[in-house]
Structure formats: C-alpha cells, structure tokens
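Why should sequence recovery work at all? Because a backbone constrains its sequence more than one might expect. Tight turns favour small or flexible residues, buried strands favour hydrophobic ones, and helices have their own preferences. The token representation captures these environments compactly. In the example below, the structure is given first.
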C-alpha cells in the first residue's frame, strides 16, 4: 500500500520535496503553503498527488497547510520586494565592516521569521558583527550562509557557451560529479576555457553523453594497445565512435592509418605473475592470443 504525497518545489530548478496533501485538492502548478524546518513556506506543486512506496519517503512527512490564496500570493510578492531592499542593505553593511565576501542573494521565509543572506568567499569569514548589525536593522532572525561557485551560478543565472540559459538555473536540480576524464572520453579539447562553465568549474553537460560514450567505446581497443591490421602490426592512437573507425600508427612505417573497427584485431598482452597467488588468480601469466574487435 503506497502513501499519498504531493511534490512541492520552492525554487525554480530546485529540489522537489514530498508533503502529505491530506484532503486538500491540488494539481500541478498550484501554489501551496507548507510547513518546513524553516517555518511556513510558499511552494509550487511540481508533482500532483500520487502514491509512492514508503521507502521513498523521508520521515516525518509534513502536511500541506493550505492551498495558496490570493492573499498568500500578495504576501509572496511583498517578500520579494523586501528581499531586494535587504540585498542593498546587506551590501552596505558588508562594505562598512570591510569583509572579504561577495553577497549573492537574499531570501526571506514566507512567514518573515528569518532572512537568509547567501555569500561566497575564498575562506572562512568571521561575520558575527555583521549578523548583529543586520539583526538590528531587520529585527528578525538573520542567517548568513556561505555557498560555492556552482550554487552562485545557479542563483544568479546566465547564458552558457551554447547560447542557452544555464541548465542549473533552469531545470538541473542537483549537481552531478563531473571529472576531466569525461572530457578525455569524449575527445574534447582540454583547454579549461572551453570545458568550463561561467562558474569556473567543469561544465555539467560533460556528463550528459558520457555514459553513451563509455558504452560505445567498450567495443573499441584502448588507446596505446597493440593491434593487427591489414597492413601489419601497429599501435592504436585514437578512435572515432561515429565513423566506427580506429586510427593506428603502423609499427614498420610509423604512418598513421584509419581502419574500420571490424578490420583490426587486438593482441592480448602477457600479464606478469605476482607470485604466490592461487592457481586461478587472474594476474597469472596468460598465453598471448588474438581477439577480434
């Protein structure tokens, strides 16, 4: 038996959290007031009411307080205006305290019980006096939260090198791990300026096609491996999964030739025994053989 839930998103491209809708009729894109760890919050229904397995729920499942009213929407607009004012005041206070930090954004909880200032900095910042100064102005709870450069790009938004809006600010709710190996796997230029986003980190889109490249390359010999070709033995220096070809440097002539994958065979290298292993150890020496690629 599943549990009835509704998925609520609080920010554009933000994470979706499950809540108990109870008897409240909600549909996608409806506004809703829910109780969170930060207090009452306004969110939009991203996933309509449905049943999910209990294992997908993070207990305790909080309830939806009510469907958003016109007054709630007006309150949300007023909060946004206060956030803009708070941002300017935050900039002034940071400058007055001469703190090496960059204010990125300001967020006020729906019920007005807390104002959160998001900032970036190169190291740890002692902002205790700044918090006191801000609390004296706003007369409410103040939280300063340090974020990374990827989160900064997500909050501010912008255009990527593709000419489209940043994925992280439009639809990407979670940052996936991206490595330089992915760029190598896709034969991309390793020039940091060409594979880095506006945040200065490796572009998130490097991960999108990486799995497809890895699967496609499983049937190709690795770069540097020795293969037999119609023109003799050579060393693999590159592959092209789109043309289904392998570039080989011939051993005798040192000329680089391109061959269809089916026209070459890879030589299995001998593996030295590590000594003292069991008889069926995979690192024992094997007979050299040929494998059709």
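From this structural description, the recovered sequence reads:
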């Amino acid at each position: 038996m599943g549990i009835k839930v509704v998925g609520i998103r609080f920010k554009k491209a933000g994470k979706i959290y499950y809540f108990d809708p109870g008897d409240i009729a909600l549909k996608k894109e409806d506004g809703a007031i829910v109780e969170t760890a930060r207090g009452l919050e306004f969110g939009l229904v991203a996933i309509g009411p449905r049943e999910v397995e209990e294992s997908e729920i993070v207990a305790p499942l909080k309830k939806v307080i009510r469907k958003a009213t016109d007054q709630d929407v007006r309150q949300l607009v007023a909060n946004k205006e206060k956030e803009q004012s708070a941002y300017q005041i935050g900039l002034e206070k940071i400058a007055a305290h001469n703190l090496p930090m960059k204010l990125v954004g300001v967020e006020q909880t729906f019920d007005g019980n807390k104002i959160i200032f998001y900032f970036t900095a190169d190291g740890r910042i002692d902002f205790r006096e700044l918090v006191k100064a801000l609390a004296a102005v706003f007369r409410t709870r103040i939280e300063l939260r340090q974020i990374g450069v990827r989160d900064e790009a997500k909050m501010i938004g912008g255009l990527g090198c593709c000419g489209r809006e940043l994925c992280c600010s439009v639809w990407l709710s979670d940052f996936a791990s991206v490595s330089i190996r992915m760029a190598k796997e896709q034969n991309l230029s390793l020039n940091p300026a060409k594979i880095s986003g506006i945040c200065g980190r490796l572009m998130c889109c490097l991960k999108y096609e990486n799995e497809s490249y890895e699967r496609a390359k499983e049937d190709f010999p690795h770069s540097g491996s020795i293969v037999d070709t119609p023109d003799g033995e050579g060393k693999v220096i590159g592959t092209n999964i789109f043309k289904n070809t392998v570039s080989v440097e011939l051993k005798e002539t040192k000329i680089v030739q391109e061959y269809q994958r089916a026209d070459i065979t890879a030589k299995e290298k001998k593996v030295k025994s590590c000594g003292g292993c069991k008889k069926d150890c995979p690192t024992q020496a094997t007979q050299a053989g040929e494998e059709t690629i």
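A few observations help interpret the result. The first strand starts at residue 3 and ends at 9.
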